[in-house]
Amino acid sequence: MSVMKDITWRNAEQLGVAVRSKRKEKGLSQTKLAELLGVERKWVLHLEAGNPKAELGLVLKALSALGMRASLSSDNPSSRKPREASTSRLDEVFRRLQRPAQK
Predict the structure, then answer these.
(1) Nearest CA to 44 among 27, 29, 26, 25?
(2) Are 23 and 47 in contact (CB under 8 A)?
(3) HSE (CB half, 13 Å, CA atoms) of 28?
(4) pLDDT in tens, 45-94
(5) pTM (2 decimals)?
(6) Which of 4, 14, 22, 78 has the fewest C-beta atoms under 10 angstroms from its C-beta?
(7) Using H for helix, E for strand and C for coil, what is the string for 24-54?
(8) Can you list the domains of the chain with their CATH numbers?
(9) Burial (0-12, 13-18, 19+ Cβ within 10 Å), 1
(10) How many CB atoms lie within 10 A of CB 22?
(11) How far is residue 15's CA from residue 19's CA, in Å, rounded to a whole number?
């Protein structure tokens, strides 16, 4: 059972901490996560250290591999739309961007 709840990440370092925590919770080594992503262990190390220049596609792939999800929202509460409407549009964008798994 996951101890993580919905968290707002404000910078790459916070994202890295969340990724590291989830990876450890799942019992994965950095090497194993790297294998799942098709990258070198060094990339995972940099992501967990808060690399602000990490490739977005790979970051999203890492989140997916860990069972995590990213969402976008406005900082202005008055401009927020109902959660299901904004989430479903973002989910659709991510579905369109997903590539078939390589064999």
Answers:
(1) 29
(2) no
(3) 21
(4) 999 999 999 999 999 999 999 999 888 777 765 555 555 444 566 677 66
(5) 0.66
(6) 78
(7) HHCCCCHHHHHHHHCCCHHHHHHHHCCCCCC
(8) 12-97 (1.10.260.40)
(9) exposed
(10) 20
(11) 6
